[in-house]
Amino acid sequence: MKKTIFTSLLAIIIMATITSCSSVQVVADYDKQVNFDNFKTFAFYKPGIDKAEINDLDKRRILRAIENELIAKGFTKSENPDLLVSIIASSREKIDVYNNFYGGYGWGWGWNPYFYGNYNNVSTTTEGSLYIDLIDARKKELVWQGQGVGYLNNATTDKKEERINEFVSKIMEVYPPEIKK
Question: CATH number of 22-94+124-172: 3.40.630.30, 3.40.640.10, 3.40.50.1100, 3.30.160.670?
């Protein structure tokens, strides 16, 4: 019995560690014909942001994080911008079932003092995706898109804001793209 409790507790600790430490996986795509050095100002693209299917509080957190990242990269917010910023956000529930079979030795069918049984551990996590689109304001063309995928935690407002900042920071690390010559 102690072995079963210990094994179950160990499995829960490992799952919690893996999901709490998981990082954001980032990919980006861009137009190779664009000179990204020409972009100095930005504004948010309201029609695109209004379509994002997340609550207004998280939307504001994301926009604030993007604004901070762009300003840190030397951009300024403008009424007449070079770049328009839009977002797409989504989430989905992931259900993981871990089937653990513990068997032992005994004295034949029906009576086995060392048989621990079949235990199922079920965990659910929420995986989120955030796309940040940068659009050439003059041409109205998408010039760069970054996507981050990772697990979300909804524990507290501070943790949620911290995770959103991590998503945006990781995505914006790959902007501007390094053009290979």
Answer: 3.30.160.670
pTM of the model: 0.71
> Degrees (nearest 5) of the Cα angle 88, 91, 93?
170
CA-CA distances (angstroms) from residue 129 to 76, 100, 145? 26, 31, 13
Domain ranges in the chain? 22-94+124-172
Give me the percent of the chain exceeding a pLDDT of 70. 72
Tokens representing 91 are: 């989430």
Rounded-to-10 torsion of CA 10, 16, 18, 23:
-170
* Helix residue ranges, H only, the chain: 2-20, 46-50, 56-72, 157-172
